[in-house]
Design brief:
- The protein is of the alpha/beta class and 381 residues long.
- The strands form six sheets. It has a six-stranded mixed β-sheet, sandwiched between helices. Strands 2, 15, 16, 19 and 20 form a five-stranded antiparallel β-sheet that branches. It has a four-stranded antiparallel β-sheet with strand order 7-6-8-9.
- It contains ten helices and 21 strands.
- The chain is 30% helix and 27% strand.
- The protein has two domains: 297 residues, 2-enoyl-CoA Hydratase, Chain A, domain 1 (Alpha-Beta Complex); 82 residues, PDZ domain (Pdz3 Domain, Roll), CATH 2.30.42.
- The termini are far apart.
Length: 381
């Protein structure tokens, strides 16, 4: 594992205990706040830790070579601890990965409205600076601020655009072999994570959710209010390929639909079990079908299981991913982080879906047939 900077012994000791605000998983994401209630004072009495310090001290004082990379030594010890746990979701997280997740799940962000893979423009935000300037999906970014870039420079491109000191971004774009130059002023853009419509010739609302961002519940509420004014009497919620997001977003979004007091999920840590219920007066009562697939994970599975078991929704599609664990992140002084599995969550019926997933009520493999089946169930067609 390569790191840009090392960290001292105290950092190594406490990274497994201190928790920060975010948590990230390999296939999906579950964000969880820590109450910070646990003290690290007990470490001074931990005999195992004292043994570790003794080994470290012995190496520094007795090893035949005076040329010891202390930072590398401690980094290797950290790797060893993380690998020893045997948990694929517990791992090192660099600063770029951390910020990418935060950007994806924020309510808004300051930028130019581009999503890139390598140096290829993959998405263009509607009404953002890039779209207004005429940049299109498929364009190649060949220079940024006068510096030539290629497909290996994704991290550098994102870092430059994200840099808060850069209020404008100079891009050279190549399209069909022709180069175009743009100077784009960064703007605050809303992070829209839903799409919705009323399906033609029906009273069925369709709500697609791509991520569980910090503002998801407000976006969903506004979409439902808009469609309900148009007279919908049932709803399809599409969670296919949704890899998760904030745990609180799943909870708040579930509460839009559930009756007060209904279970949403249960969280089990190494010393506590807490059941989360709907505490709001808001609810819906019309029939709902939820679409899922093998890439529906984490917070998306929390919403799907809450709607199925506490609302009575019907699930259509294929078995979901099965991510029933929660990670928290310990921030390091070098800007990087360590993410650690700290809990598992259970469905309202007390089921742990980790490694299993949610089984649909109607197993439909074809993507087009999934929507057709949902409409059939809701409208009897």
């Amino acid at each position: 594992m390569q790191k840009s900077n090392g960290f001292n012994l105290i950092e190594l000791i406490i990274i497994m205990i201190i928790t920060a605000l975010v948590s990230i998983i390999a296939t999906g994401v579950i964000m969880l706040k820590s109450d910070g209630s646990k003290s690290i004072n007990f470490l001074s009495d931990d005999e195992n830790l004292q043994e570790f310090i003794n080994v470290y001290n012995t190496i520094l004082n007795k090893y035949y070579s005076n040329d010891i990379d202390k930072k590398g030594l401690l980094s290797a010890a950290e790797d060893g601890m993380l690998n020893f746990l045997g948990d694929k979701y517990t791992t090192y997280l660099n600063d770029e990965e951390y910020n990418d997740i935060l950007d994806e799940l924020s309510a808004d962000y300051e930028g130019i409205g581009l999503g890139i893979e390598g140096n290829i423009v993959m998405t263009v935000t509607p009404n953002g600076p890039a779209e207004k300037a005429g940049i299109k999906v498929g364009d190649l970014i060949t220079r940024i601020d006068g510096v030539e870039v290629d497909s290996t420079d994704q991290v550098a491109i994102k870092s430059y655009i994200r840099d808060k000191n850069n209020k404008e971004v100079e891009l050279e774009i190549t399209r069909d072999g022709i180069a175009y130059e743009y100077t784009l002023q960064k703007e605050k853009l809303e992070n829209t994570v839903i799409d919705y419509k009323i399906i033609n010739n029906t009273k069925t609302g369709y709500l697609y959710i791509s991520k569980f961002s910090v503002s998801l519940d407000n976006q969903v509420r506004n979409a439902l209010n808009s469609m309900e004014k148009e007279g919908i009497n049932n709803l399809i919620i599409d969670l296919r390929d949704n890899s998760g997001g904030y745990l609180t977003a799943a909870e708040k979004t579930s509460s839009i639909f559930l009756e007060e007091g209904k279970k949403i999920y249960t969280l089990e840590t190494n010393d506590n079990t807490m059941t989360y219920r709907d505490s709001t007066k808001e609810k819906r009562t019309y029939p709902i079908v939820v679409l899922i697939n093998n890439n529906t994970a984490s917070a998306a599975e929390i919403l799907a299981s809450a709607l199925k078991e506490s609302y009575g929704a019907t699930i259509v599609g294929t078995q979901s991913f099965g991510k029933g664990k929660v990670q928290e992140v310990a921030d390091l002084n070098n800007g990087d982080s360590v993410k650690l599995t700290t809990a598992k969550w259970l469905t309202p019926n007390g089921i742990c879906i980790d490694g299993i997933g949610i089984n649909p009520d109607y197993n439909v493999g074809n993507i087009n047939d999934q929507l057709k089946k949902a409409l059939e169930l809701l409208n009897g067609n």
